[in-house]
Amino acid sequence: MEKKLLLLSMVATAASVSYGQRMDAVTEHSKYIKAVDEYVPAPGQFVNTMPKYEEGDDAAAMVAKCTEAIAGNKRGMICLGAYGGYVTFHFDHSIANVSGQRDIYISGNAIGSGAEPGIVMVSKDANHNGLPDDEWYELAGSADVDSVGKVVYGYEITYSLDAMNNVPWTDNQGNSGTVDRNAFHRQEYFPLWLESPLEFSGTLLPDNAYNRASGASEFWVRDALRYGYVDNVANTDSAGCSFDIDWAVDAGRNPVSIDFVDFVRVYTGINQVCGWTGETSTEVTGAEDLHLQASLDAIMASPLQAATFEEMALGTDGYWNGSDTTGVKTDGGYGSVAYANSVVSGSFRFNNTYNVTWSSWSGFAVSNKTSVVFNGYDDQYNSAVGHGYDGSDNYAVAYPYGEVVEVLNRPEGEVLSGFYVTNTANNVKAYLEGDGMTGKFEAGDWCKLTITGYHADGSTAEVEVYLADYRAESEAARGYLDYWQWVDLTSLGKVTSLGFAVSSSHNNEYGMTTPGYFCMDNLGGTPDETSSVADKAVSRPSNAVETERYTMGGQRVSSPVPGVNIVKMSDGTVRKVFVK
Questions:
Q1: Could you please report the per-residue DSSP string of 22-80?
Q2: Using 50, 70 and 90 to split pLDDT, how confident is the model at 380?
Q3: Is 102 helix (H, G, I), strand (E, B) or coil?
Q4: Is the distance from CB of 75 to CB of 285 less than 8 angstroms?
Q5: What are the beta bridge partners of residue 178?
Q6: Confidence class of residue 579 from pLDDT cuts 50, 70 and 90?
Q7: pLDDT in tens, 59-78
Q8: Which end of the chain is more exposed for a tag (fewer CB within 10 A), N or C?
Q9: Domain topology for 319-541
Q10: Which pTM does this prediction carry?
Q11: Domain map of the chain by residue range?
Q12: Which superkingdom (predicted)?
């Protein structure tokens, strides 16, 4: 497979970049690198040795070795190889852009007249998935003003494997050459865990090396650039090794205002071979947040953002349920495979578990489906309203099975205003008609949602809201939610996370028989007087009976078993049933 890096992505607008910040749940935050995310070196004389490649190592193994070398304050060293080779890393918190100050210190291996400049890029975790896959911005260094007309923007280069020989390359400027082997380093120069060809693109700095000797002798000097590059000056030059987020530019070299960054990337910025000394190759030995407390204070001072789910692109009449398997792979039981996923909206993380073997999920999904009818398993993402609160598109569908909602960046907790809740179309159908698992609701029946607030000291508090309430003596006073109802959570106090549980008056000896779903929107938002009301779900007769029953692990059973049961009905529908 071809490996290609676009070192500077095109940006639609270059105004400002502002999203929710990240602060990991750790005992004590560190100013040093927490972990390396990516390591993709270009060919070079120190590649496969810093860090050392061992047979069988894959990309993940090499990333782990890089973390071991440069995370914390270990001051090991990794080599990025020739032009384009890069490393990406992150800290245990977002780094704040402090006005008038340099923000990030990155150390290299520059000694004397041996500068090997590396370009720095930064990115925000805009999609909140914890991966360095959002827009990248270059921190423009002095070459932008000192070498006008000599810097190549949009440079592209391709390296090809020629085992144990000089590594050939071609670029988009019509040039070609080789990364030459030398007598000092006899291992393979092409990274052995990556496939050929390797392609990189980005900004190419002008050559900085020259041979000061005359005749056949060689004495190579690599001059430092004025500012803004890694491995450019000695690590003791704190200003020369420090970088300002305010230097950020987009692909058009337009300044970009960024309040916080989550990922930092360094790549070798020069394509040159300096005789017997070999290729110019940036080295990295560590990095620091230059104002740790200011970053943490800025994160804590950021206002809580409501979870509206509108940032998720679901397509027309779509949903997200974790089936994209972007989370952590886990054992789903009975030989099945599951993924622990999450989605972040506003200042909250909504957790999800998806079992790929049985195409089943629990926790939180996100939907924009407009139908208010439940005719089968695929309609489990339909709400009783047909849209989000106040006519918005997206809303969450919850099927809680231990998954929680985390409050981000508030280690001591936060007093939450509340959220809007309504029923799913599945629940409404069960209330009105019943199904093969339960009869319709009658006088005295109820279905309620219990919200548990977890505090930093381990204590809890609860709030309850009825999704359906048929307890009133008057038939006219009985009913269920088919509109968005505000739920006040302020009585919970400062919470670090929320748990949810649905209970009902409809139970059998194995547990609840009412569907255990609900819909929510605008967690942490503000209540108002506008409530959107939609027609009730369309009723239809149902005489369906159970035909098959499975555990979440896929084992067929003849009777209900504790936990989530997958039940197939005679009319072709499938239900998830929680059994105590």
A1: -B---SS--SBB-EEEEEEPPS-TTTTBTTBP-TT--HHHHHHHHHHHHSBT----EE-
A2: very high
A3: coil
A4: yes
A5: 168
A6: low
A7: 999 999 999 999 999 999 99
A8: N
A9: Jelly Rolls (2.60.120)
A10: 0.71
A11: 3-301, 319-541
A12: Bacteria
